[in-house]
């Protein structure tokens, strides 16, 4: 029985870069253990959103506060993987707060 070799692109997003790095290390370790070729994790640009809010509702228009949210992203390319690789990746327990998106791609 021959198994088809698949290529996956895994994108990770999180507000906390430490959780993101830990999750990417676990994914790379599991993928390499199952015999797949791994490229990454590649850091993608961080999206920074700044919100400006008035401190008082009706006086002191010039008095404002600023808050920012940073979304950190990483990408991992897994090539020449088998069905066992995908099963191991789906069973992997990743910390809460890390969003994972897995897509197949062609070279």
Automatic annotation (TrEMBL):
Q: Does the keyword Ribosomal protein apply?
A: yes
Task: Show the GO cellular component annotation of the record.
Answer: ribonucleoprotein complex; ribosome
What InterPro entries does this protein's entry cite?
A: Ribosomal_uS10 (IPR001848), Ribosomal_uS10_CS (IPR018268), Ribosomal_uS10_dom (IPR027486), Ribosomal_uS10_dom_sf (IPR036838)
GO aspect biological process, one term: translation
Q: What are the Small ribosomal subunit protein uS10 domain coordinates in residue numbering?
A: 9-103
Keyword Ribosomal protein (UniProt): yes
Q: Name one GO molecular function term.
A: structural constituent of ribosome
Q: Which UniProt keywords apply?
A: Ribonucleoprotein, Ribosomal protein
UniProt similarity note = Belongs to the universal ribosomal protein uS10 family.
- Its biological function? Involved in the binding of tRNA to the ribosomes.
Its subunit composition reads:
Part of the 30S ribosomal subunit.
What is the protein name given in its UniProt record?
A: Small ribosomal subunit protein uS10
Q: Please tell me the species this chain comes from.
A: candidate division WOR-3 bacterium
Upper taxonomic lineage: Bacteria, Bacteria division WOR-3
